[in-house]
Write a structure and sequence with these properties.
Chain B: It comes from Paenibacillus sonchi. The complex is a heterodimer of chains A (about 300) and B (about 525). Helix content of chain A is about 75%, strand content about 0%. Chain A is built from 15 helices and no strands. In chain A, helix 1 packs antiparallel against helix 15, helix 3 packs across helix 15 and helix 13 packs antiparallel against helix 15. Chain B contains 20 helices and 18 strands. Classes of the chains: A mainly alpha (about 300), B alpha/beta (about 525). Chains A and B meet through helix 2, helix 6, helix 13 and helix 14 of A and helix 4, helix 12 and helix 13 of B.
Chain lengths: ~300, ~525
């Protein structure tokens, strides 16, 4: 792309801007460096000296503790990835199948279904009935579907999709395909879907982040370590280290091993492990995200 | 039904014969539990371990699965322990057990959700015991205990059962362990020996002052009195003959044992004198500067040599516990006589859910963990050779990372049935017995404050108390104006209403006694 002369920034301004952004980047990166340094510091020297960029004594104890059970972490990664991929695909599919009909002016029960989804956005049954449905009606306790099903359909996403369909798919086009002999399904998959890729990408991204970051469903429904999601596993490890260090009186006999955990350093090591996938995934996702939004804005 | 009753009678007869043949000896570990099913067999005494009799009994019981919800974990290898337990239980009560470990993050919330949604489960560790019992979440246990857990009832300290009673019903079986808790110090033995401190001369908090002075002068690297945001000197009450009665344990309402009157502990000359002393200590440089907010754990401070003693609740095996945690030899000095209050007894208990399908079998299981060392050690320590190694007759060593280590004996059952951990005090049984003998039971044991009427005031009071407590006890500021401010806020938030509510319930309790 040729630089546009009018928009070119003068050299001094350019330098100042560069300096500002370098400082900004450093302020973003330094805490991560500090977190990394703390995570490899010997816990006793933290107690004595506080946080330091250059640790007096190195120790990989925190990582040793976390990866002691590396199979658990690997499994949790697996669960999180499966839930994210399967959940995103399913929920985008289901949301669009709900949004599309209520976006069509010629759908007879449109008002009723639009109201139904809108209603659930405003009023919920509360935690207990919600829990009862998943544990007693659907019997999903300790099942991987307990991590997927509760987040399949979000009214907010449905409304976004519905609005998009209404704005960007001209009714005349649907009519035309009908005249050309396409059934409803064919119209949806061959005409509406390709035209609405941006909204699918956007909602897909929402769902991906949502599923990846979810720990609440694991906390409520899962007691089987094999089915822990990564986020919950880390949340649990930290709260466990916290709890045990606060309640030393409870620690007797068999829990002694746990009582010796290096609290602070574990937290930092955990933060770094948690950053991992996001750091890797975010630039990749972000590209699509921006593309999706701009595509939408131009067309819509 | 008639047929069932018939077999029950027959069975009782067989049991009685078995009993008379083998004699009545052996009052705990060898005992079997009487089977369930009919009224008739409740008269049958526990049988001896005659294999034939046992088989006949269990044939009568159809196999059921019991679910057990405990804090901690979850452990990776819990399935193999379950399997071992199930094999063992088959001959005993023909039940299998499903251990659900809820981990340490908000287990109480999860159980609340289960209770509120009416989920079917059997046994649960009692978080929020009072609230849940009052709501009717647990099954009343008196009859079950009399029928299916006679041995437990005979051996358990009656004070425990009293503390688990709400509105006249027993709602849980408490873990049999030390009665009550005491406050005290755990000193670094090396320092104590170096300066020849006589820790046994310490009778109250004030007595440590000369030691603080010595440390200040001779050991510049050590903070003479180290405190953090959770462990401050409020462990040491200035009112030894009193008890904290409110449901939260976080607001200043003490009951004076002598007058049986409830009072605001922050509104007396005694507390002012104590806080002034702490202020003096702070000015003398004995206390670390940011004591009210410091997040360093005391054990870590001692371990790294930043502090030389810790303080807080002590139990009979504290010497060992602290030595293990601080990773250096420690000496313990407990201060008050051990106080046994309703609250200290309610620490850990096991209840049967109202939704349980097999409460009789659950009670049999609970009886076994109070009387059967094989089952109890299986549950708390795991499988020999896999989760622990025997290093002595009764002493074990844990295998690191074995995948089963978070079911602790303090949670359930009878602690004294446990094997000794390798680094535990070999005199544990003796220590516990002595401890319990020296315990002073609260004159109002069994009193439980129902806070429903003043719930909102209590919430506000907790916030105020939290806001001021650490600052007051850290010595950073002159206590007098702060106390004044705090008391006026407490008054405005309705402390008097709470006190009079507790007082009237207490008066009613005493009158009924």
């Amino acid at each position: 792309m040729e630089p546009v002369t009018n928009n070119e920034i003068s050299r001094p301004t350019n330098i100042i801007l560069h300096i500002i952004f370098i400082i900004l980047s450093i302020t973003c990166l330094l805490p991560i460096v500090l977190v990394f340094m703390i995570s490899i510091t010997d816990y006793d020297s933290i107690v004595l000296n506080g946080y330091q960029f250059i640790p007096e004594k190195l120790s990989l104890e925190a990582y040793a503790y976390i990866f002691k059970d590396y199979t658990v972490i690997v499994k949790a990664y697996g669960v999180s990835i499966f839930v994210t991929v399967a959940g995103t695909l399913l929920s985008v599919f289901i949301s669009s199948l709900y949004a599309y009909p209520i976006s069509r002016a010629d759908f007879k029960y449109r008002g009723f279904f639009a109201f139904l989804i809108f209603f659930t956005m405003l009023f919920g049954g509360g935690l207990v009935p919600w829990y009862m449905v998943y544990t007693q009606v659907l019997d999903l306790k300790n099942s991987i579907w307990a991590l997927i099903v509760p987040m399949l359909l979000s009214p907010f996403n449905v409304l976004i999709m519905k609005t998009y369909f209404q704005m960007s798919v001209p009714p005349a086009l649907i009519e035309a395909s009908k005249i050309d002999g396409a059934g409803e399904l064919r119209t949806f998959f061959r005409i509406v879907f390709p035209l609405s890729l941006p909204v699918f990408a956007t909602i897909g991204l929402f769902n991906t982040l949502h599923y990846w970051n979810d720990w609440f469903n694991s906390m409520i429904f899962i007691t089987d370590t094999d089915l822990y999601s990564l986020q919950y596993l880390m949340y649990k490890m930290i709260s466990q280290a916290d709890y045990l260090s606060r309640n030393r009186a409870l620690i007797q006999g068999s829990a002694t091993e746990l009582a010796k955990l290096p609290g602070e350093t574990i937290r930092m090591a955990m933060a770094l492990i948690g950053i991992g996938p996001i750091v890797l995934a975010y630039p990749f996702f972000q590209r699509y995200f921006i593309k999706g939004l701009t595509l939408g804005s131009i067309k819509g | 039904m008639a047929g069932k009753k018939g077999t029950g009678l027959l069975l009782s007869l067989v049991l009685l014969i078995g009993l008379s043949l083998s004699g009545c000896g052996g009052n705990n570990s060898n005992n079997e539990v009487a089977p369930t099913g009919t009224q008739a067999d409740s008269t049958a005494a526990p049988a001896a371990s005659d294999k034939a009799v046992a088989t006949e009994k269990t044939n009568e019981l159809e196999q059921v699965e019991l679910s057990l919800y405990l804090p901690g974990g979850p452990d990776k290898d819990v399935a193999s322990v379950e399997q071992a337990i199930n094999e063992y239980l088959k001959d005993k009560i023909n039940a299998t057990i499903k251990i659900n470990q809820l981990s340490w993050d908000k287990p109480a919330d999860k159980v609340n959700l289960m209770i509120q949604s009416g989920e079917v489960f059997d046994m649960v560790y009692t978080w929020n015991f009072m609230t849940n019992a009052a709501k009717g979440a647990y099954l009343p246990l008196e009859e079950l205990l009399d029928t299916y857990a006679k041995e437990t009832k005979a051996q358990i300290n009656p004070a425990y059962l009293q503390a688990a009673t709400v509105n006249g019903h027993l709602y849980a079986v408490p873990t049999e362990k030390e009665l009550g808790q005491s406050v005290g110090f755990a000193f670094d033995k090396a320092i104590v020996d170096k300066y020849g401190f006589d820790v046994n001369s310490i009778k109250k908090l004030e007595d440590i002052e000369p030691m603080l002075k010595t440390i200040k002068e001779k050991e510049p690297a050590i903070t003479p009195l180290f405190m953090n945001h959770t462990d401050s000197l409020n462990w040491f009450t200035v009112y030894p003959d009193s008890e904290d009665l409110d449901g939260s344990n976080e607001i200043p309402t003490l009951l004076d044992y002598k007058t049986m009157k409830v009072f605001n502990e922050y509104d007396t000359p005694e507390i002012l004198a104590r806080l002034k002393l702490i202020r003096e200590w702070y000015k003398a440089g004995y206390i670390n500067k940011n004591g009210a907010t410091d997040k360093t754990e005391l054990k870590d401070a001692v371990k790294s040599g930043k502090a030389w003693f810790t303080y807080g609740n002590m139990n009979p095996t504290s010497t060992n516990d602290w030595t293990r945690l601080a990773e250096k030899p420690m000496v313990i000095k407990t201060l008050l006589p051990v106080q046994v209050s309703t609250k200290s007894l309610q620490g850990s208990m096991l209840a049967i859910s109202r939704t349980s399908k097999n409460p009789e079998r659950a009670m049999m299981f609970m009886n076994l963990i109070h009387t059967d060392p094989v089952l109890y050690n299986l549950l708390t320590f795991g499988i020999e050779g896999k989760h622990y190694k025997k290093v002595g007759d009764n002493t074990v060593e844990f295998i690191p990372d074995s995948g089963y280590n978070s079911v602790s004996s303090w949670m359930i059952g009878n602690v004294l049935l446990n094997y000794l951990n390798k680094d535990e005090d070999p005199k544990r049984v003796q220590l516990y017995t002595d401890w319990n003998k020296n315990s002073k039971v609260s004159p109002v044991i069994g009193f439980v404050f129902d806070s429903t009427k003043v719930q909102s005031q209590i919430g506000a009071l907790i916030n105020i108390t939290k806001q001021y407590k650490n600052t007051l006890y850290s010595g950073e500021k002159d206590p007098e104006p702060i106390l004044k401010e705090m008391n006026s806020k407490l008054k405005a938030a309705g402390l008097d209403a709470v006190i009079s509510e507790i007082q009237s319930q207490m008066d009613a309790f005493l009158a009924a006694k």
